[in-house]
Every structure is written in C-alpha cells, then in structure tokens.
Amino acid sequence: MADTNELLPEEVDEQHQRLIRDLRLMHRADAQKAQHLARVQQPLLNNEG
Amino acid sequence: MQQQDEHKLAQNSDNTLYERHAAIILAYVKSRTASWQDAEDLTLEVFLTALEHDNLSWLTDKQQLVWLWRVAHNKLIDSYRRPGQPPAVPLEQVVENASHDEALMPEQLVLRREELERLYKAIGKLSSQQQQVLQLRYGEGLRFAEIAVLLNKREATVRKICSRSLVLLRRIYEQH
After folding, report:
1. Would the CB atoms of A8 and B159 count as touching at under 8 Å?
2. How do residues A1-42 score in pLDDT, each as one tens digit?
3. Which of these, B42, B35, B31, lies nearest to B147 by C-alpha position?
4. Domain that holds residue A38
5. pTM assigned to the model
6. Which CATH number does B91-173 carry?
7. Alpha carbons within 13 A on the beta-carbon side of A35
C-alpha cells in the first residue's frame, strides 16, 4: 500500500492494528474488480477501433 | 500513413489514460452507487466522454484525474445516484471471509461474528463522508492524495477525517 510518510499515526500504532485489519476485511474490494475493469474497457476498445 | 500513425498514437494515449485512472474512478463511482452494474455503466460513460476530448494527453496525471473525477461527479448528479450504505460488503460475507482467512473453529466464529457485527454497526453510525473515506482507503487502498481529488477536499482534511474515524471506531470497538 502506502509509503511511511503516507501512513497516519494511527495506521502504524500497534493499538489500532486489529481495527484496521477488520476495516480492510469489512471493505475488502470485490475480488472480481479486474473483471469489472475489463468489462468497462471492452466497449471503449471497440469504440476506438 | 500519417493519419494511421496519429490514430494509433491517440489510441495508445486513451489506453494509458484508462490504465492509469480507471481503477480509481471505478472505486469512486462504486462508493456512490448501489451496484457494480451501475458503477461499470457510469465509468464507461466517463471514459467515452474522455475519448471525445483529444487534449487530455497534454494534462499532468493529477489534472487528468481531476478532469475525469469532474465528469464522473457530474454524471452521478445527473443520474441522481446517491451514496449507497457502506460498508459495501454484506456482514455475512465479511464473517465468511474472516472464517476463511483466520481458519476459525465454530466456537471462535461465534465470538468473531459478534465482534464484526459490533464494528459493522459502528461504521453505520459514521457520516457518509467518513464511511466513504474508510472505503476508499481500506477497501480500495487509495492514497490520501487520490482520495482528496475524488472527494474534492484538501489532503490534510481527508487525513483528519480518516484519523478521527479510526479513533472513534476504536473507542466503540473496545468498549466491550
């Protein structure tokens, strides 16, 4: 993810790690995201061609 | 021949534009729509609009992202789409993911479910802006500078919103 300067103090704080892990679990991006992106790109490629 | 080369150049530049920014625009649109289908349709509309503008390749990366965001934002307003209710992943799916990732035994799963349900409810009490920042940061893994562009705010403001949300959630989360 982000470099050290990018991180919030809370994101490196040991006491927040459990919460942050669960937030990632809770907001986990759809595993099929690459497929969503490919589906959007296909008509664009057709449009250009 | 020259015309073909120019066409190829434009096509490459449009592909690069898509590869650079589509994931971020899709993440933003998804954070404000209820379904992936809506998010895909709207993202497609944004990049079709971009195709009609030949001059985007002269912009910097950040200027391109701001331009795309403005188009996405206006299309969201036009379509009267409003933010969904994040977290976008249903609780049952979250519990299933936790069970799989952490290889939980049935009795551990009951406790973990209670814990996650508590967090789920706590997130629901945050403002929609706080929820959106958390989703873009922890769901999509975006940098604060990228989130700032998408939410039309200063980076320092986004960092503050995220920081306060974390402190608030931790307080609620650890009350039990």
Report:
1. yes
2. 445 568 999 999 998 998 999 998 887 766 677 888 999 999
3. B31
4. 4-48
5. 0.73
6. 1.10.10.10
7. 6
